[in-house]
Amino acid sequence: MHQLGQKKVIALRNNINLINPEVKVNAIDIKLQAKDIIKIFSDCDVIVEAFDLAEMKHMIIETVLSEMPDKIIVSGVGLAGWGNNNSITTSYSGRLIICGDGETEVSDDLPPLAPRVGIVANMQANQVLEILLGRGNY
Fold this sequence. Notes:
Blueprint: H1 8-19, H2 34-41, E1 46-49, H3 54-67, E2 72-76, E3 89-93, E4 96-100, H4 114-132
Parallel strand pairs: 1-2, 2-4
Antiparallel strand pairs: 3-4
C-alpha cells in the first residue's frame, strides 16, 4: 500500500502490481520536459494527460500534436471544484480529445476535488478503451 512520503510514481506502480502482478510498469521519476516526451511516449498507442499544472498540460499537448503525428492524446481540462456535472463533456479536435468542462481552472476557491476529478478521469479511461478496442473514429 501507499506509504507516507512515497513518491506518486512508485505508489502507483506498486498499486498496479497489487492489482495485477503480470502488468509491467516502467515507473520513470523525472520532472517531464518537452525533450523527454517523444522518447518516453514513443511506444504508447494513446497518451493520457493528467497534469495538475496548466503549463505542463500545454507542454505535453503541444509536443504530442506537433512532434508525434501518429499519437492521440486524451486530456483532462476543467475539472476543478464541485457540482455542475452536466458541464463535463468530451470534445474532439483532431488527435486531441478533451474531457472536462474546458474552463474551470484549479484555484484557491476551486480546488481539484475527488468527485469531478474522478468523473473526468473515468471519462478519459473510457475514451482510451474506445480507441484501443477500435470503437472510436480515430
